[in-house]
């Protein structure tokens, strides 16, 4: 293994992200989704062939196309800025000045170091600066950034940065608690452990505000 391969292996094995931004090439969207699906289909065929699988078997015939479509349209669909949720906001007409918390947002993402699932919950909060967003907007923002090859720390920061931009406020927080299947199902195979990341901005850097947020997300919601 060459020196730079060893370094990259070390970074991946330790789940270290190298930037707040998803490392995309400048030409990432020069070809269409359909062209990407055709190329990835051949790549998946190659992987299965190399592993020795018989792709003429009825059960495997559709797999390369299915995986390629899933990569481009579903689990990595959030790479495409065209799919970013609209940033429409509303006036805070009730003059509600306390924090608003959207908790237990389901997170389905993919670890960019192993291409295995990250599954968990995100809890997002903001304090309105005159603007509010529809409640489901927070779920959509989480889902958009989750649908990329990800590092959990980066996902947490990207959600906060996007909400800061949309709501025109610094007062935003996000906590994510998630299981990484690369840790749970392979390697150390620890099925119990989960990873918690948090990003606090503006008023949430204040200890009392942060505690209030953390208390809310511990509430058990009963119907
Ligand atoms: Zn991983």
From TrEMBL:
InterPro entries: GTP-CH-I_C/QueF, GTP-CH-I_N, GTP_CycHdrlase_I, GTP_CycHdrlase_I_CS, GTP_CycHdrlase_I_dom
UniProt keyword Cell membrane present: no
Hydrolase listed as a keyword: yes
EC number: 3.5.4.16
Domain of life according to the entry: Bacteria
A Pfam family this chain is assigned to: GTP_cyclohydroI
Gene3D superfamilies (alphabetical): 1.10.286.10, 3.30.1130.10
Enzyme class, spelled out: hydrolase
Protein name per its UniProtKB record: GTP cyclohydrolase 1
Organism this protein belongs to: Paenimyroides marinum
């Amino acid at each position: 293994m060459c020196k730079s391969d060893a370094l990259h292996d070390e970074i991946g094995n330790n789940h270290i992200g190298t930037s707040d931004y998803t490392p995309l090439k400048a030409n990432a969207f020069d070809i269409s989704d359909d062209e990407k699906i055709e190329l990835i289909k051949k790549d998946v065929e190659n992987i299965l062939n190399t592993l020795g699988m018989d792709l003429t078997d009825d059960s495997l015939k559709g797999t390369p196309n299915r995986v390629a479509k899933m990569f481009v349209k579903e689990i990595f669909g959030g790479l495409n800025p065209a799919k970013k949720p609209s940033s429409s906001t509303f006036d805070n007409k009730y003059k509600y000045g306390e924090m608003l918390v959207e908790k237990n947002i389901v997170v389905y993402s993919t670890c960019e170091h192993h291409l295995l699932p990250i599954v968990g919950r995100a809890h997002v909060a903001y304090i309105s600066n005159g603007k509010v967003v529809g409640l489901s907007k927070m779920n959509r923002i989480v889902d958009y950034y989750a649908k990329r090859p990800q590092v959990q720390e980066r996902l947490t920061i990207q959600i906060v940065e996007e909400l800061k931009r949309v709501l025109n406020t610094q007062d935003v927080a996000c906590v994510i608690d998630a299981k990484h299947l690369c840790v749970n199902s392979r390697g150390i195979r620890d099925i119990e452990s989960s990873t918690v990341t948090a990003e606090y901005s503006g008023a949430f850097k204040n200890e009392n505000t942060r505690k209030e947020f953390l208390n809310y997300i511990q509430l058990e919601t009963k119907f």
